[in-house]
Amino acid sequence: MPEAPEGGRMGTPPRSPWALYLAFQRLALQGFGGVLPVAHRELVDRLGWLSPQEFVELLALCQVLPGPNIVNLALMFGDRHFGVRGALAAASGLLTAPLLIVLAVATAYRGVADVPVVTGALRGMGAVAAGLVVSTAVKLWGTLERNPIGRPASVVLAISTWVTVGWLRWPMVWVVLGLGSASTAWAWWRMRRAGLDR
Amino acid sequence: MTAGATMIDSLWAMAGLHGHGLADVLQLALHFMMLSLLAIGGAMTTAPDMQRYLVQDRGWLDADQFTSSIAIAQVAPGPNILFAALMGWTVAGMAGLVATLGGFLLPSSLTTLAVGRYGRSRADALALRAFTAGMVPLTLGLLLSSGWVLTAPTRHEWSTPLLVVGTVVVMVRTRLSPLWMIALGAIVGALFMR
């Protein structure tokens, strides 16, 4: 039985930066409306480069860090295996082909942007895009049950964020620094009180 | 004017700047660099501030162009961060694209690489867990703001609330691909939103 070190809990590493580039390109091109689910299927299930546990840990770390989660995941994974070369290979695999496709679609759109039916279609798609973003928020709502902040404070914070950023159009930087530090302090206090600080 | 300066000017023109100078492009890059570091809950949480900056403050895009950049990026495969590239491209061609996409990726990527190399062991410290938990309600509020801002060009249409609510219900209740809803939106829009 072929066994990886540590009882098979580790993935088998990619062979080269080029393999990284191709793998991330392949998963990016399958990702319509979100690449992360595809990333799990490709990196864990198909290629076996990461064990399920490793994937979850890597993703958790990338979600705390600023920037697009999937790009962070590609960078960190690539860097682990081939240093900066690997990071660049994975991230550019993720971005280059989709970027060219997006630009091609946008160019094609520009050619017909004056046609009312096309303008209307794109507006309808924009409304659906808004719905897609809101549905991410709704799914996130479900995770609040396990959040140490508690529902009442979460609701107040979420509404305050919406009012200031979405409605009053205050610059995001002040809202995130202000409400974000208040929220973090509150979470910290609640976790200590609940004895979650070990 | 010297020949060198003229040549640089014409190079800028070739880059498709749409009348923007170097200073504009630098400001664009700087704003997206700042947003990069604020994007804790993903790229989409920064869309309201991109709209505030590009549409309201600068007037470099109109509300329709802004929302359609995000809609187009969602039809195409790949990470949704490409909507930022599309916005920069619409504002100032290739230079704008480099400013927004490069600006949005550089600070967060350097942070990620640094943390990946030197910061792994502290991943479950109390302060970090408190930060992670504390950012969730903000992310929620920011995503709702994004949804709200994206409806700016179509808010007066009767079909907009139907499409938004319908999409939310389908995405939360079923495992249908978002592409089906986008296609439905295109049909409804072509019929009723022109």
Descriptive notes:
The complex is a heterodimer of chains A (198) and B (194). With 198 residues, chain A is mostly helical. Chain A is built from 7 helices and no strands. In chain A, α3 (52-64) crosses α4. Chain A is flat, with a radius of gyration of 21 Å. Mean pLDDT of chain A is 90; it is low at 1-8. Chain B has 8 helices and no strands. Chain B starts with a helix and ends with a helix. In chain B, 75% of the residues lie in helices and 0% in strands. The mean pLDDT of chain B is 90. Chains A and B meet through α1, α3, α4, α5 and α6 of A and α2, α3, α4, α5 and α6 of B.
Top keywords for this entry?
heterodimer; A: about 200 residues; mainly alpha; B: about 190 residues
Low-pLDDT runs of chain A: 1-8
Uncertain spans of chain B, ≥5 residues at pLDDT below 50? Answer: none
Q: Which secondary-structure class do the elements of chain B indicate?
A: mainly alpha
Proportion of strand residues of chain A: under 5%
Number of strands of chain A: 0
User: What is the global morphology of chain B?
Assistant: flat
First-last Cα distance of chain B: 48 Å
User: What fraction of residues of chain B sit in β-strands?
Assistant: under 5%
Structure classification of chain A: mainly alpha
Largest sheet descriptor of chain A = none
| Total number of beta strands of chain B | 0
Average pLDDT reading of chain B: 90
What is the typical, i.e. mean, pLDDT of chain A? 90
Helix/strand order of chain A, N-terminal first: HHHHHHH
In DSSP terms (H or I, runs of 4 or more residues), the helix count of chain A works out at 7
Query: Describe the biggest sheet of chain B?
Result: none
- Radius of gyration of chain B, taken over Cα atoms and rounded to an integer in Å: 19 Å
Query: What distance lies between the first and last C-alpha atoms of chain A, to the nearest angstrom?
Result: 40 Å
Helical content band of chain A: over 70%
In short:
Chain A has 198 residues and is mainly alpha-helical. Chain A contains seven helices and no strands. Chain A is flat, with a radius of gyration of 21 Å.
